[in-house]
Design a protein that fits this description.
Layout (H helix, E strand, L loop, with lengths): L1 E3 L4 E6 L2 E5 L6 H23 L6 H8 L4 H8 L3 H13 L4 H10 L15 H12 L9
Antiparallel strand pairs: 1-2, 2-3
């Protein structure tokens, strides 16, 4: 068995030769620790998500910082139309994380990306999903 370059992947023989297999479910202790971390770290993000609406964050932050389009173009080494398209793509969900990170970096900001439950905590969501599956706990598959 070969551990895949720190990725937590195992190279194992399978029905169709050798292939990558992601390790199975995590143990209960590790799961409980992960749920606690997600709940702790996600509390403020959930509050932010309640007021979230699609908007042109890059444009709005750039304007608040008093950063001209020409300055941002210089910082990112891209043209005016690319910046305009990026600001528009943000509202449609077409802007990639890499593009958003580059814009944030050029404005001396940091991109914060998270997935938070629509309601309740991660622990409550996991419990609810487990009940839906009929086993009392959420099945975790990597």
């Amino acid at each position: 068995m070969w551990k895949g370059a720190g990725r937590g992947l195992d190279l194992l023989p399978g029905q169709n030769g050798w292939g990558w297999r992601v390790p199975g479910p995590i143990g209960e202790e590790a799961r409980a620790k992960l749920v606690a971390e997600l709940d702790r770290d996600g509390k403020w993000l959930q509050k932010a998500a309640r007021g979230y609406r699609k908007r042109r964050w890059t444009r709005d932050v750039r304007r608040v910082l008093g950063m001209s389009l020409a300055f941002l173009m210089d910082e990112t080494q891209v043209g005016r139309s690319t910046i305009y398209r990026a600001e528009d793509k943000e509202t449609t969900g077409e802007l990639t994380i890499a593009e958003l990170e580059a814009l944030a970096e050029a404005m001396e900001c940091k991109l914060v990306y998270a997935i938070v439950p629509k309601r309740g905590t991660v622990a409550e969501l996991a419990e609810r999903k487990g009940r839906e599956r009929g086993n009392g706990k959420a099945g975790i598959r990597d």
